[in-house]
Amino acid sequence: MNENKTPGASGLIMNEPLLWEKGKKGRCGMCVPKSDVPEANFPEALQGEGPDFPDLSEVDVVRHYTRLSQWNFGVDTGMYPLGSCTMKYNPKINERVAATPALAAAHPMLADEHVQGNLQLMYELQEYLGAITGLPAVTVQPAAGAHGELTGMLIFAAYHKSRGSKRTKILIPDTAHGTNPASAALCGYKPIPVKSGKNGILDAQTIADVMDEETAGIMVTNPNTLGLFETNIRQIAEVVHAKGGLVYGDGANLNAVMGIIDAAKCGVDVMHLNLHKTFSTPHGGGGPGAGPVCVTAELEKFLPTPRAVKDGDQFKLEYDCPDSVGRVHGFHGNFGVLVRAYSYIRTMGPDLKKASQFAVLSAAYIKERLKGTLKLAYNMPCMHECVFSDEWQQEDKITTLDIAKRLIDYGYHPPTIYFPLVVHGAIMIEPTETECKEDIDQFIDTVKKIVQESKDNPELLRNAPVRSKMRRLDEIQAARRPCLCG
Amino acid sequence: MRYLPHTDEEIQEMLEVIGRKDLDELFCSIPDECRYDGDLNLPAPLDEWGLNEHADQLAEAMTVTNEYKVLVGAGNYHHNIPETIPSLASRSEFLTAYTPYQPEMAQGTLQGIFEYQTLTARLLGVDVANASIYDGASALAEALLMGLRASKKKTKVAISSAIHPHYREVARTYFAPTEYELLELPVGDDGRTDLSGLGDIESLAAVAVQSPNFFGVIEDLEAAADTIHAAGALFISSFTEPLAYGLLRSPGECDADIVCGEGQSFGMSRSFGGPGLGMFGCKKKFVRSMPGRLVGQTTDLDGQRGFVLTLATREQHIRREKATSNICSNQGICTLIAAMYMSSLGGSGLRDLAKLNYDKGEYFKAQLVKNGAKIVFDSPTFNEFVVEFKEDFQPIYKRLLEKKIVAGLDLGKYYPKLAGKYLFCVTETAGKDVIDTVVGEVKS
Predict the structure, then answer these.
(1) Between chain A's N and C termini, which has fewer beta carbons within 10 Å?
(2) Domains of chain B by start residue, with CATH
(3) Are residues A362 and A318 in the same domain?
């Protein structure tokens, strides 16, 4: 394969100092309106010096951020097969809808009758997410996936409290998402780790052995972080329910199963979704996300307030829910993110099922074509992602990190690495449904080429990346001598 | 479907490689009893033009639109946003990137966040600021939990009842399943928090005060710091309007230990309350108790300056249930927006804009008083204040609404004792003519 046909290339990359290394006192990059009122005296005792910010011109600011952006790689730049993160294409039209002036300018404390458009959107989004999961009652208030998990755990706690029981433990399998234990701990639950079975799937008997009446329930990621469907989920739910516990479904991997599974039929009671994964809203280099929580009708009364409800042909915010866990966000959640996800669902409609089918097709295809090149962690039918390890590269003293960094030279964002922890040197690949076959084939060929390089010229991998603006960065130095502020 | 590139021919080729006869067979591991019945019950797909029309219909259902002057702040403010900000923040290299786990491919995001952390620390007067929390409310809840962590065995925290009512609700939600106790402190007749009872509270880990507070009143943070520290507690200073710090002494300068609040004012649209930005900083000695991501400076193999995520051993994916928080995704792009805003205004611009907001508020208050209204709290305020009218304000409110002005927020829902009194906000976006129109209606 000719290296020059991969997207990786060295271009003209500009240097750019830090903001405060630029500028001159007295410049301004933004108009401050001329005052049309008399000047007033501000009490001196309360007055400060004002922060030491650099003064920059508009051109200074524009060039600064344009140059910074060129050091970055996004989904719009190229394939981003980051496992568990669902880096699918983020449609441009959804950005425009979110910027619709009447929707985006709304103050969150206006009277319901003045914001019917926004309330309709929130209400309908709740309905759609209920239809997609099979769990009919939904809050869109949580601001991210982990915030949804926390909301779910608050609901667990409120449910058990309402039944007069105080439970202290929660079961968390080793194939669950990394945030789960910390979310549960915030609600006072001690996470009890549960081992997955030999084939990467949870065994109902393992759960039965540890589930007791001190345990609030279980947090299951399904499909799990190995990309496998938890086939025993129904039996596991029965075991947990029989002891009075609840089942939490971490929906971060929903992209594999829209229109394929019904979470309620799987026995799940509470589930959060990541709109910034499955529903195509941009990740923004770390956020903002949105983590709606869907629950069974029985648990509806515990959802955070307020929620959008329909009253005749009007929409309103319902506050009167005495059993609610309360508010989890200052206002109505990351509304701008909700608008984008709503737009995506309206664009896809029932074809969301196709998105899941193609996401799984692409992952299964990669798994099949790379299983002779990299060691598969578990040779089972995969869902939307597949997990390999660096076991076969160990004889050449090449690690997962080296493979990941070499992919950068070829113009790909590396997969998720060293997660899940149950796989040594994990390489977790999630192509998503929006990558076309040629690009997937090119990625596969590139991985094969890199593995060949690891035998022929391993230094190429150990020194990688060499075509990026920066070479490998010293993370140990960053942590030992923290410099967090310039 | 334009987001799904696979052709029928490619699907067949891929299925053959996998050894499956059709797409359904890919899901053979899923038991029948778990399966979805029928097709997804969702409206039929809209094309791009249909979606645009639908968005227009939703916009038409909004009766208070962007044409209105909304003189309500209460934690969500209307400020001018220069076109440079949406233009730069929508660059897809920033917008469509994930969390910067691979620093060689994300130096733009990482330097951008490092700059945000630095400008935020300078604004708030603290040693360190993190890469954001969801919003001002969750930032307060996290700060209170951090206060308890940093104080070891103590069990109580106290918050001013002049903190935004929604923030207090969120703090209560976070505290409900814990063993900790959350107390509320009263507000004096001057609209400032009454801290006189602190000495009687045992096992007090931290006390939170907001300035400017929910009533727009500027708290005496220096005096608050002395009282709180004398009670052996950490001082948490919260805020909803960071623009005020262009003029006010910063909370850090007043000796706050933890500073947290909402940054929506800095370049983000009101957007029905989100996404905004939870700004969060603290003194250096507490940094290892701090929640959230941090970006730090380092060098690459060639000795070039670069940036990485750091001190991750505090975080959920490493420390698991012992982490300082469960937060993972934060407000990402909003940190860059805030940094773009702070750097566009610069030190001089921020001061001028803050002063303009203050002057508008003072003019508005003076005009109202001249026409018989009363300003409920006589302490200094920033760009918000509470007004009591001689008679029922509702008819005037309605007349002003017809003139496309939303005249304040009735406080009765949040403070029953203040029912019929209105919280007003005025920023640089409301001209003198708008203020005069409101005052004119009050007068008549």
Answers:
(1) N
(2) 69-81+346-443 (3.90.1150.10), 84-341 (3.40.640.10)
(3) no
